[in-house]
Design brief:
By secondary structure, this protein is α+β, with helices and mostly antiparallel strands. It contains eleven helices and four strands; from the N terminus they run αβαβββααααααααα. Strands 1-2-3-4 form a four-stranded mixed beta sheet.
Length: 296
């Protein structure tokens, strides 16, 4: 009996402290011409463990509830312990009653320079700077958590955005690129967070919820109504775009969703797409070839 209780307690402990992400992390050093150097393999292994084994929130997350994500770090150059790199971060979330995963976060962070000594400890502090390597990775983890939460509950990601903002605040003191306060035209991680949390772009988070929770998650039950809800959500971006045309945050959204939107409105039950296509062509002209394919 005692052994059974121990096993049950152990299982509960694993469940209670299971981590939030299922992230495939790759370090690609081909551009350096020395991709087989052991330090790159060690860095990849340590970061994989850091992202997937760190407890980022105080929530209990079942293994099947982990957020699927990927991070691809491109090492462009290195000298001893100094690395010049970029990182492509993506995440997705499951759609109710289906096997489909909808892309949520897709961000190419070009300003990722850091220092790293092989086997150095990677520790995250919510309130103080540890290293630029840790700060950048942690920032993107919290952006993944925040955007995912916003798709399930209105403004559900607020606490995670606030943690990301804390990371920006203490990392700015390090003077590394990507953390500086946004100025016109910036496409940095700092600018991304500033856009999302600004009242100027308040429709963005509302669209995340309506598009996914009220639209995609309900398509199994009523595909036509689900498509209409998604169309209405996307059309509401027009208000935001009229306030600040061609915004960075809209580009980030459509980088993640353009292919999916084209597919949604090119099959299944027919809905009125006239207004939608007009709006998409205006607010996301960089994907106009996809919008022209919407003819169902």
């Amino acid at each position: 009996m005692r052994n059974c209780l121990f096993i049950l307690s152990f299982i509960f402990t694993l469940t209670a402290f299971s981590q939030e992400l299922n992230c495939n992390l790759v370090v690609n050093a081909q551009q350096t011409g020395n991709e087989n150097v052991q330090v790159f393999k060690t860095l990849e292994k340590q970061l994989q463990e850091f992202v997937n084994n760190t407890q980022w929130t105080n929530k209990t997350v079942a293994p099947q509830e982990r957020i699927n994500a990927s991070m691809v770090i491109i090492i462009e150059d290195y000298n001893s312990d100094s690395f010049q790199a970029s990182i492509q971060v993506q995440s997705s979330r499951p759609i109710y009653n289906s096997t489909y995963e909808s892309p949520i976060y897709n961000f190419n962070d070009r300003d990722f320079n850091f220092q790293y000594l092989e086997f150095q400890n990677l520790n995250f502090s919510p309130t103080q700077f540890e290293s630029n390597l840790v700060s950048v990775i942690a920032f993107h983890v919290y952006m993944i958590l925040a955007m995912d939460a916003d798709t399930f509950e209105r403004n559900g990601g607020q606490s995670y955005y606030e943690q990301a903002r804390t990371i920006v605040g203490y990392s700015q003191q390090n003077s590394a690129k990507g953390w500086e306060p946004p100025s016109g035209g910036d496409q940095t991680r700092s600018a991304l967070l500033d856009n999302i949390m600004s009242p100027t772009y308040k429709e963005y988070r509302e669209v995340l919820y309506n598009y996914h929770r009220m639209g995609l998650d309900n398509m199994y039950e009523n595909p036509k109504k689900g498509k209409e809800t998604i169309s209405n959500a996307l059309t509401s971006f027009q208000t935001m775009n009229s306030r600040r045309p061609n915004s960075f945050i809209l580009r980030v959204f459509f980088d993640a969703k353009a292919d999916e939107i084209e597919e949604i409105f090119s099959e299944g039950p027919s809905v009125d797409i006239t207004k939608l296509v007009t709006t998409l062509s205006k607010i996301a002209p960089m994907h106009s070839s996809k919008w022209r394919n919407i003819d169902f």
